[in-house]
Amino acid sequence: MRMLKCYLGNNRDGHVVTAKDAMQSPGRIWTCTSCGCQLILHAGSSGEAPWFEHDQRTVTTNVLMQCTHLDPEVKAEARCQKLRSIIGGLDAPVTVPSWYCVWCGSHYQGRKHCGRCHSGIYSIEETSWQRNYCCPPPDKPCG
Ligand SMILES: [Zn+2]
Ligand SMILES: [Zn+2]
After folding, report:
1. 74 φ, ψ to 5°?
2. Ligand nearest to the CA of 113
3. Which of 6, 22, 38, 101 has a 20 to 30 A CA-CA distance from 65?
4. Ligand 1 centroid, distance to 72 Cα (angstroms)
5. 122: domain range?
6. Measured in angstroms, how far is the CA atom of residue 46 from the centroid of ligand 2?
7. Which class for 26: exposed (0-12), middle (13-18), buried (19 or more C-beta within 10 A)?
8. What's the gap in Å between 9 CA and the centre of ligand 2?
9. Among candidates 73, 39, 75, 84, which has minimal Cα distance to 58?
């Protein structure tokens, strides 16, 4: 996961500190103001301000995907991958209903019952998901 450098973090008391200030109190733990991911403090090289790196082992990919510091390119790629899987799924007979589980982020077909969370209450119709989240300009194909 490519994450952008961030320069602000929450300390244990819930206060927002800059990476520069954080340099004054080493040994503390800081977390991302957006996703809550634990942060690694970097001193920065010559002429560069101190910055925080996401410690990506401390949270799941799903959490990082929601973070404002996620590299925008990663987001675009993920959207395209989902789109591709939908396009690939169009070969299936249209009579089979398609579902998208917003909880798990999984696509499936047939009975409204997500195999991952074993329920259908988080599932919405694939078509309405596409309408809401997938609208790439036609002249810009993925990839
Ligand atoms: Zn974050
Ligand atoms: Zn699910």
Report:
1. -65, -40
2. 2
3. 22
4. 13
5. 98-134
6. 47
7. exposed
8. 32
9. 39
User: Does 14 share its domain with 52?
Assistant: yes
- Residue 30 falls inside a structural domain: yes
Domain end among 54, 71, 88: 71
pLDDT tens digits, 96-136: 788 999 999 999 988 999 999 999 999 998 887 777 665 55
- Centroid of ligand 1 to alpha carbon of 37 (angstroms): 5
State the Cα–Cα distance between residues 42 and 123, nearest whole angstrom.
41
Q: Which residue carries 């396009």 as its tokens?
A: 87
Q: What is the pLDDT of residues 56-106, one digit of tens each?
A: 999 999 999 999 999 988 878 888 778 777 777 665 555 678 899 999 999
Residues in Cβ contact with 119 at an 8 Å cutoff, skipping those fewer than 6 apart: 113
